[in-house]
Every structure is written in structure tokens, then in C-alpha cells.
Design brief:
With 520 residues, the protein is α/β, with parallel strands linked by helices. Helices cover 41% and strands 20% of the residues. The chain has helices at 29-42, 56-68, 82-92, 109-116, 120-137, 153-166, 182-195, 215-224, 246-255, 257-260, 271-282, 303-311, 339-348, 355-371, 377-388, 432-444, 489-510; strands at residues 10-13, 46-50, 73-79, 99-106, 140-146, 170-175, 203-208, 229-232, 331-333, 375-376, 396-403, 411-418, 421-428, 448-457, 466-474, 478-486. An 8-stranded parallel beta barrel has the order 1-2-3-4-5-6-7-8, surrounded by 8 helices. Strand 2, helix 2 and strand 3 (73-79) form a beta-alpha-beta unit. The chain binds 3-methyl-2-oxobutanoic acid (KIV) and zinc ion (ZN). Zinc ion binds at residues 18, 174, 176, 207, 209.
Length: 520
């Protein structure tokens, strides 16, 4: 396909903003930076790094990304009010001329009447004022009429035109509640192009939510009708049912270039690694049958399919796994591999660890190689990501012993360290995991309710490491998630739970639990 400039679709990644708004998926500063570095490797055009007014942590995250990440533009979100816009301007400033302020204001009748209690004229006035103020700080200003898909089209056109006249350089059309269907949403974009001649001078993005499972389809309908930017997240992470999934929409345009004639600059071979990283750092598990990056996405179980694939790959495979960075279970290192080979391999996998972290990672690798014959890329990814996770360590696991089996009462003895103090206790449970988690609760003086528990094997073989992902509710509403891996699944469960306990204790003490400001 000849890549014409007018057919290039901008990829605006909002994993660190809308994705991070997903309950239980919050990330610390180091984790955000790690995701941002990987997004830069993936070659996204714009990283929306956060909502700076939302919390000091969000502000610091946006500022750190703006300082460190080179390449993509760095955007921050702001409601259409001076305090938000000024705070956002300060946070994105280190990105220099790659800084973007993204202002939004709801425009639909339902939001005007019940949330904002504002007439149409006031909405236009506030949008214009907000865009003008943002333009005083940066050249690159994006305006989003929130709930655009449920806004009267003529009024939507009026607001967008006013925002462009005020200086907006990108107009983003959000399907905030995931209500749109593809024909209608594509039609809305065509309508806006028809009724706002000025739209041809700015970039038009769309931002689709997945409440009806149509976020990707709606985004494709929009680009078919002239939009040239798609806002999306890795693994489709986001509030409620999530956002448009980056990997799906990018691979749809790539695989069906014949149907769309569009292209992006995404390095698709980085997709799988990015997906794993985000899943690991947020604790949000990717479902096995998820398109593009799920464990089953390229697994052909049925005999008739396997036979076809062996004869000619394209009989049943529309994309090659290697195109999205799935290299298979490649044997990489063994027990006798030295530090140098280990460090080189981690570097090749894209990890940037300090010397101290590298040493810890190497020790963990040697321990693993003692227990497990073959070490694969995915094992190394798990080791590196576990070390990189920005985890508060109030308590660390010092010792764990469980006894369980048919006819015995499952019992756990746990020893935790808190600074120099060693605390030991024991409890029974209805299984070894329950017993271990209950003992941790007793020692830490907390009571967590397990909302989700999932266990996935990182690689194949019986000796594979198990990766446990948890979501825990402390104090009725303080949600945290955690992940850990080990060849012993009870140990992985205890470590993942301890990560949650530590995060809860730190957030609770500091009062830093993030609450998204009300959208008004
Ligand atoms: O879904 C939405 O409307 C948003 C806006 C802030 C763009 O996230
Ligand atoms: Zn959104």
C-alpha cells in the first residue's frame, strides 16, 4: 500500500489517563514512567499522561513523563476551568513544544441539564474561554465536547466551530458512554465535516468507550469518514468496559489495509510486550481469548485448523504472531548463563534496570533456574517486571509454610518483616491460599476482601511459574490490585496479596488514594 500522508491515522494513547481511571488499576510514578517508555518504543504519536488536577500523584506522573519521554507529544487533561488548565500547563511544560493541553466540557442535553446546569450559550462561552486560556500556555490545544455522540448534532457543530475559532488545534469527538453504533457514529463524523468547513484545518480525533463492545468498530467507522486520530488504550483498559483497544484497532487497519487504505506509525512488533507490561503493572489480567494479545489469539486447537496451518499458514491465520511481537516460547537462558548474558538479554527485551536491580534480578533468575529446567523470555519478563514494580514495601515475606492435603486442616505459618521487626503468626483456612492470606491479615492488622483471583501459567510445562493476579477491597471501597509470580502458587498468592496490603497501608496512611474529580 502506498502510504499517503493524508491517510495516516494518529494514535493517541490514553492508558495512563483514561486507562488508569479503571478501578484498581492505578500505577505509581515509576510504573507510569515504565509504561510511557514502552509507549514511546511502540511509537505512539501522543501519550496522554494523566489528569494533573486529579491528585498530586497524577501531577507528578504527567510532569515526569513530560520531562523524560522523547518522541511522542505529551498531553494532560483539564476540565474547562482556569485552575485545571493552569495546573495542566505546569505539568506538561517540560515537554516543550511537544506539550498538549486537552480541555473538555460536556455538551449533551442530559449533561447540560443535570450535571452542569448550564444553557447552550454558557457551554459555548466556557469552551471558548478554556481553549483561549490553554492557548496562552501551549500551541497544541485539544478540545473534547464530552458526550458528543449524545449531543444534538447542530449544537455539537456550533461548539466545535467556536473551539476552533478560539484556537483549538485538535477536535476530539468522544463517545463517552459507549452508546454509539458504527453507522451512526461514522455518520456523525461525516456530518461534522460537512457542516464545519474549518474542521479541515485541524485534526479530528475520536475517543470511543466500549460499553456495547463497539469501541473499535466505532473508531474504524470514524476514520472511514475522515477522522485521523484514534484515542485508545493498551488492552482496552479504561473506565467501565474500557476504551478502544490500541492493539485491535491498529491491527485491524494494518491487516485490512485493503478495506481502509489507512496506516499508522505503530511498531506492531512491540504490541505484545506492551500488553504484558500494562497487565503486569496494573494487575489487570488479559482474557485468554482477547484479540491480538490474548494467550489463545494465535493458538489453533482444532485438528482441522492445525492441519491447514501446517499445509499453508494463511488458511487459518490472518496475521503472523511475530508481527505483534509474539515470539513463542523461545528457550533463552540456562542455569549456567552468566550475568553478562543475562543483562544483555534483558536489555534486548527492552528493560532498563539499575545495577542494583540487575543484581537482584540475576539472583532471582539463578533461583528460578535451580527450580526450573528451561527459562524462557516470558520468565525473564516476569522477573524484570516484578523488580521494576514501584511497590511500597511496608511488610516483606520472610517465611511461608503451609500444610494441606486430603483429610488435613489447611494451616499456614507466615513470618513477615517490617523494618528490623520480625512478626510470625499462623492461621487455618479452607485451603492453603486462604490460610496464608488470613495469616497475613492477622499480622498486618487489616481485613481484605478478595474480589478477583486469577492464576495463569507464564510458560508451558509442568514446572512453569504461576502468575497470580488479585483485586482486593479494604475498608469497603478501597480497591487495590497486585500481582506476583513463583513456581509455588501458594507463595505467588501470598506475595501478590502482600503487595495489595502494602499498597493499601501506604495509600491509607498518606490519604493518597486517587479519586477522579467530578466532571463538571
Ligand atoms: O470519555 C470521555 O469523554 C473522556 C473525555 C475526557 C475525552 O474521557
Ligand atoms: Zn474516556
Amino acid at each position: 500500500m502506498k502510504k499517503k500522508t493524508e491517510n495516516r491515522v494518529i494514535i493517541f494513547d490514553t492508558t495512563l489517563r483514561d486507562g488508569e481511571q479503571c478501578p484498581g488499576a492505578s500505577m505509581g510514578l515509576r510504573e507510569k514512567l515504565e509504561v510511557a517508555r514502552q509507549l514511546a518504543r511502540l511509537n505512539v504519536d501522543i501519550i496522554e499522561a494523566g489528569f494533573p488536577i486529579a491528585s498530586p500523584g497524577d501531577f507528578a506522573g504527567v510532569q515526569a513523563v513530560a520531562k523524560e519521554i522523547k518522541g511522542p507529544r505529551i498531553a494532560g487533561l483539564a476540565r474547562c476551568v482556569p485552575r485545571d488548565i493552569e495546573t495542566c500547563a505546569e505539568a506538561v511544560a517540560p515537554a516543550g513544544d511537544r506539550a498538549r493541553i486537552h480541555v473538555f466540557l460536556a455538551t449533551s442535553a442530559i449533561h447540560r441539564q443535570y450535571k452542569l446546569k448550564k444553557a447552550k450559550e454558557e457551554i459555548i462561552k466556557q469552551s471558548v474561554k478554556g481553549v483561549k486560556l490553554a492557548r496562552k500556555h501551549v500551541r497544541d490545544v485539544q478540545f473534547s465536547p464530552e458526550d458528543a455522540s449524545r449531543t444534538e448534532p447542530d449544537f455539537l457543530a456550533e461548539v466545535c466551530k467556536a473551539a476552533i475559532d478560539a484556537g483549538a488545534t485538535t477536535i476530539n469527538i468522544p463517545d463517552t458512554v459507549g452508546y454509539a453504533v458504527p453507522d451512526e457514529f461514522g455518520g456523525l463524523i461525516a456530518y461534522l465535516f460537512e457542516h464545519i468547513p474549518e474542521l479541515a484545518d485541524v485534526t479530528v480525533h475520536v475517543h470511543c468507550h466500549n460499553d456495547l463492545g463497539l469501541a473499535v468498530a466505532n473508531s474504524l467507522a470514524a476514520v472511514k469518514n475522515g477522522a485521523r486520530g484514534i484515542e485508545c488504550t493498551i488492552n482496552g483498559l479504561g473506565e467501565r468496559a474500557g476504551n478502544c483497544s490500541l492493539e485491535e484497532v491498529v491491527m485491524a487497519m494494518r491487516t485490512r489495509a485493503d478495506a481502509y487504505g489507512l496506516w499508522t506509525d505503530i511498531r506492531t512488533r512491540e504490541l505484545y510486550r506492551t500488553s504484558r507490561l500494562v497487565s503486569q503493572l496494573t494487575g489487570m489480567v488479559v482474557q485468554r481469548n482477547k484479540a491480538i494479545v490474548g494467550a489463545n489469539a494465535f493458538a489453533h486447537e482444532a485438528g482441522i485448523h492445525q492441519d491447514g496451518i501446517l499445509k499453508e499458514r494463511t488458511t487459518y491465520e490472518i496475521m503472523r504472531p511475530e508481527d505483534v511481537g509474539i515470539t513463542g516460547t523461545e528457550l533463552v537462558l540456562g542455569k549456567h548463563s552468566g550475568r553478562h548474558a543475562f543483562a544483555n538479554h534483558l536489555q534486548k527485551l527492552g528493560f532498563k534496570l539499575s545495577a542494583k536491580e540487575l543484581e537482584t534480578a540475576y539472583r532471582n533468575f539463578v533461583d528460578l533456574a535451580d527450580k526450573k529446567k528451561n527459562i524462557y523470555d516470558d520468565d525473564l519478563v516476569a522477573i524484570a517486571q516484578e523488580i521494576m514494580r514501584d511497590l511500597p514495601s511496608v511488610f516483606t515475606l520472610d517465611y511461608l509454610h503451609v500444610s494441606a492435603g486430603t483429610g488435613t486442616v489447611p494451616t499456614a505459618t507466615v513470618r513477615l518483616k517490617r523494618g528490623d521487626r520480625v512478626i510470625q503468626d499462623a492461621a487455618c483456612g479452607d485451603g492453603p491460599v486462604d490460610a496464608a492470606l488470613k495469616t497475613i491479615d492477622r499480622i498486618a492488622g487489616v481485613q481484605g476482601r478478595l474480589l478477583d483471583y486469577s492464576l495463569q501459567a507464564i510458560t508451558k510445562d509442568k514446572d512453569a511459574m504461576g502468575e497470580v493476579s488479585l483485586r482486593v477491597d479494604f475498608n469497603k471501597g478501597h480497591l487495590v490490585s497486585g500481582k506476583a509470580s513463583s513456581t509455588d502458587i501458594v507463595e505467588a498468592s501470598a506475595k501478590a496479596y502482600l503487595n495489595c496490603v502494602n499498597r493499601f497501608l501506604v495509600e491509607d496512611r498518606a490519604g493518597t488514594r486517587k479519586r477522579t474529580p467530578r466532571r463538571k
